[in-house]
Amino acid sequence: VFIYQGVDHIAAGTVVIIDATTVQIAPLEQRKAEVPSKRVTLPELALLTREAMLEAAGFLAETGETIGILFSGGIDSAVVAAALVRKGARVIAYHLQHGHSSADESACAVAAAGALSIPLVLIPATTEADTLSFDWRFPHPYGHAGLRWMQSIAEHAVRDGISLLTTGRGGDLCFGPLDSYGLADIFSAPIAFSEKVKMCVGAVSTDWLLPDIVKSCGRSHSLISASSLAGTSDPFAVPPFLCQDLLRTPRTP
Question: d(Cα 187, Cα 155) in Å, to the nearest integer?
């Protein structure tokens, strides 16, 4: 944006329509969820969320087109796919299959696609020499490491007659991660008292330290910090799941 004149920043919630001669940029219509007037339980909130997802998926299903979806097999992409299937859409799932065992989620994708009875296309996402090509000599500052993977998905989608490709990405942006979090947020949340009790009890069973959990009753102390997490003396230990996005520095033996 700052180096090349005429390049616009495309913000989230924006749709770009490109054809042979024009480029149109417009705000994407947002579906506003109805906020309950009374306190609800988490199961009730889940039902409201499900209804909102089905309503949103209905607009895509009504096109009659076969819809492709980038499919990790995790909850975000699986929920989008499930809503589309429920509304009668024809769906084809595309999964990037990484060769490294610690990054391979294909078993989850296969299980989720099987449960939804939708076809699944496994696309190798290697980091070998075949991911590079002289055809992709883009000017600085372009440097998308996943370009070859995205191109492979696009090639499969074209062969399958896909004109609309969607994804579950964005769930994290809507529901977290938060900048700060603690018991004070649970106390003030518009949920039933019984749910607050369950969440407070659940906080004790996490990797958070008990003194920090108690301190988080006040707004000034957040549990989202490396200092609030229980450490380990084993330099080779894998950080617990709550540490993954918080500890940015590499762990060295």
Answer: 50
Express each pLDDT in 52-95 by its tens digit: 889 989 988 998 999 999 998 888 899 999 999 999 999 999 99
Q: What pLDDT sits at residue 178? A: 65
CA distances in angstroms from 84 to 32, 179, 202, listed in the order given: 19, 32, 33
Question: What's the CA dihedral at 7, 70, 81, 199 to 10 degrees?
Answer: -80
CA dist., res. 253 & res. 249, Å (int): 13
Ranges of the chain whose pLDDT falls below 50? 1, 232, 234-253
Distances (CA, A) of 240 to 198, 209, 235, 243, 247: 22, 13, 13, 5, 10
CB 195 within 8 A of CB 43: no
- Residue written as token pair 């603690």: 182
**Distance from C-alpha of 191 to C-alpha of 39, rounded to nearest angstrom:** 5
On whether the CB atoms of residues 168 and 77 are closer than 8 A, the answer is yes
Average pLDDT score, the chain: 79
- Hunting for tokens 């065992």 — which residue is that? 101
How far CA 65 is from CA of 14, 88, 117, 153, 241, in Å, comes to 22, 11, 18, 18, 39
Burial 223-237 (b: 16+ CB within 10 A, else e): bbeeebbeeeeeeee
Can you tell me the distance from the alpha carbon of 29 to that of 56, in angstroms, rounded to the nearest whole number? 11
